[in-house]
Amino acid sequence: MWCLFMVMCFILPFGNSHGVFRNRRSVNPEANMNISQIISYWGYPDEKYDIVTEDGYILDLYRIPYGKANNNNSAQRLVVYLQHGLLTSASSWVSNLPNNSLGFVLADAGYDVWMGNSRGSTWSRKHRYLKTNSKEFWAFSFDEMAKYDIPASIDFVVKQTGQEEIFYIGHSQGTTIAFIAFSTLPKIAEKIKIFFALAPVFSIVHTKCPLLKMAYKMKPIIKAFSGDEDFLPKTSFNKFIGSKLCPLPIFEKICVGNLFMIYGYDQENLNMSRLDVYFSHNPAGTSVQNMVHWSQLLYSSHLKAFDWGSPELNLLHFNQTTSPLYSVTNMTVPTATWNGEQDLLADAEDVEALRSEIKYHIYHKTISYYNHIDFLFGMDAYEQVYREIVAIMQVNP
Fold first, then answer.
1. Is 356 tagged catalytic?
2. Among the options 89, 172, 203, 295, which is catalytic?
3. Residues of the chain whose pLDDT is less than 70?
4. Annotated catalytic, 317?
């Protein structure tokens, strides 16, 4: 993404004089909308809630209570909770057309759909008493997302709907924090009927993702430019790139190339007419500490908590001198997994190692040509993944 920004900045001054901005594809209106507006735009009911975590973060939680064809809002529906991945937000679930966006697909299949946002992402950058521009606000990683964000979100959904068990679907980091929460917090785990893990990430020792490798090698530079605060937040520049530049033929290949460079290649399966939506909403930001945490795991075969940098600080946070390990073997939630062989982030070897540790593994599928974002934006995601998710839920009411 940084490479994309640099290329854009270089080309922009020459755009008008050399005709770069001619023949621009029309912009999808969702590129300039928030999540509620996107849901309403497609004719679905939308609800938005602010929930507060135990440590004071205020998270936006979005709901599509029913679909277009089943609009009897008095009927109780089974609940599905969706959790996005690293540097994305809940917009990921509604960024494609309704027949190929998981949030809309599930609503039309008769489910009550809830979409969470991790702290530090576009729609969850508030706190009860900490200022967003303070170092204290950004002193978190996926440890806190698992410990506080997931419990707050799931508890709220369960209380609001009156259902004792719900389905959980996560993508990328959304699976990581679920594996941690469901293996360390039994009271949360017992509220999950089935855990659907798309492009699951636990160990990243075999990852080929250049963004994480760059974060490892350039930690001092990242901290110099970003401080100890936010990393790649959504800005007006994102929206400018998405709505103004990516629709241009000259920039289209650059936009797509950067996506594939980070997540893996699958040129035939991306809806090129939606690039403006993807880039207007992504990256959605996280903390520098979270990126440092991920970089700490590059050469570790086990997932572990954030290393605070010294035995003394680790002792203060964990009551031990080293950061503790997480173990999936403690998780009792029935789990189904999907992964792609072209995924640079959730490498196939790492996924295979993870699968061997899941006790209640009910289904797995490897898709030979899928990359990391095909699970969100792939044109055949319904046929390859979403239809199977609905089928599994229907036989496990």
1. no
2. 172
3. 1-26, 71-75, 213-228, 232-243, 256-265
4. no
